[in-house]
Amino acid sequence: MTNWNLYRILIHFLPKKGKINETTLPESMANNIKKILRAHRCMGASIALFDEREITGMLAFGAARKNGEKARKNTIYRAASVSKFITALGAMKLHEEGKIDLDADVARFFPHSLRHPKAPDTAITLRMLLSHTAGIHDGNCYNNGIAKGMPLSEILQGDSFCAHLPHEKWEYSNLGAGIGGAVMEAMCQTDFETLMQETVFAPLQIRATYYPQKTEGLLADACRILPPQKGPNFDAEKRKSRPLPPAEINPEAHYALAHGNLCLSAFDLAKLGVAGMTPGFLTEESLSEMRKTIQPFGERANNLSQGVGTFILQEPRISPRPIYGHQGMAYGAVHGIFFDPEIKKGLAILTTGASEARRGVLADLNFDLISLFLGEKHG
After folding, report:
1. Phi, psi of 352 (to 5 degrees)
2. Band of the pLDDT at 258, cuts 50, 70, 90?
3. In whole angstroms, how large is the CA radius of gyration of the chain?
4. What is the pLDDT of residue 377?
5. Between these two residues, 378 and 369, which has the higher pLDDT value?
6. Which parts of 68-125 are beta strand (E)?
7. What is the pLDDT of residues 66-76, one digit of tens each?
8. Which of 77, 86, 233, 268 has its CA 20 to 30 A from that of 280?
9. What's the chain's average pLDDT?
10. Residue 228 banded pLDDT, cuts 50, 70, 90
11. What 8-state DSSP symbol labels residue 16?
């Protein structure tokens, strides 16, 4: 019995809670979603479905806060690693506009050396950083340092480089993706928040921010379902009360934004899904570039490979077609943005907490929702 199998058994004995608070979906579809959310002991969630043009349905379920405040269609969540897909949308748009070069040596723009100790002559590029192939990983120095606000220059002096060489293989790295955002602001000489507002959010009429302090409306907590916690692991009110840092180019601190700090609603995440699925905001060439396999996940998950800020899911149990998007898991919350460009359907899910059991990398909850909406018999 694997650890995840034991976890699934324990989760099964937790009470099934949560009701649908709001929905625009047909009753039978809404009830199917409710069954899945309850099966994975989801505390609360907002879900949006979309096609090639618009949002086609919404559902809000359960609680957005540990105190029981209800999740709504417009509830805002910290999207965790789903942020990486949005960062990639911004990078591709800037690349189209000729403002950045995905394959340039970042040493020309960035104040800190990212050269691998075993490959000092190998250039590190933004494409590598956004595809987890730069030979950078989340070492103990990063994991301890990000919680303490340690400057990037100190983290890079620690155990932040992989045993393998750059571009040799895939290794998921929040640090590498976060540095990618800091590199973008260095290339454009604009702080990352402003850069993404001007490049992505304003053109698409999306309300989103990398600073919880700037959110308007209800910001959700994030809570671990098992083992249960007395308080939220991501405390929305505490995060909103932190002082807002100045808008400035600051790679020493801004490595902590692009990898997982984006705050937005499921409705706005779905709008970004439309932009990432259908030519318009980006050209077909740019969208294809995001979806090209750069490296497989390898032993971590034989059904997933990596594009530019994009997961490529090839799972015959769900569909013979590839499905694209990204997953986010942090503080107990499970999120996702997934779409199938051929059938022109997608889904966005943001939660306050759910079962964290996973099949390799993909969370069980996301697997079941993808199967429901993008699976072959439904597609």
Report:
1. -95, -10
2. very high
3. 20
4. 65
5. 369
6. 76-78
7. 999 999 999 99
8. 77
9. 95
10. confident
11. P
Residues 156-173: pLDDT tens digits?
A: 999 999 999 999 999 999
Distance CA 226, CA 191 (A): 38
CA-to-CA dists, residue 180 to 28, 97, 133, 166, angstroms = 42, 18, 12, 15
DSSP-based three-state secondary structure for 93: helix
Beta bridge partners of 265: 76
Q: Which of 336, 303, 338 is nearest to 324 (CA)?
A: 338
Q: What is the DSSP letter of 99?
A: S
Question: Which residue do the tokens 């976890």 mark?
Answer: 7
- Quick one: 85 exposed, middle or buried, by C-beta within 10 A (0-12, 13-18, 19+)? buried
Eight-state DSSP code of residue 197 = I
Helices and strands in the chain: count of H runs, count of E runs: 13, 13
Residue 1 token pair: 């019995």
Under 8 Å between Cβ of 266 and 78 = no
Cα gap 41→159, rounded to integer Å: 36
Residue 343 has pLDDT above 60, yes or no: yes
Token duo for residue 213? 């302090």
Residue 154: HSE in the Cβ half-sphere, 13 Å Cα cutoff: 13
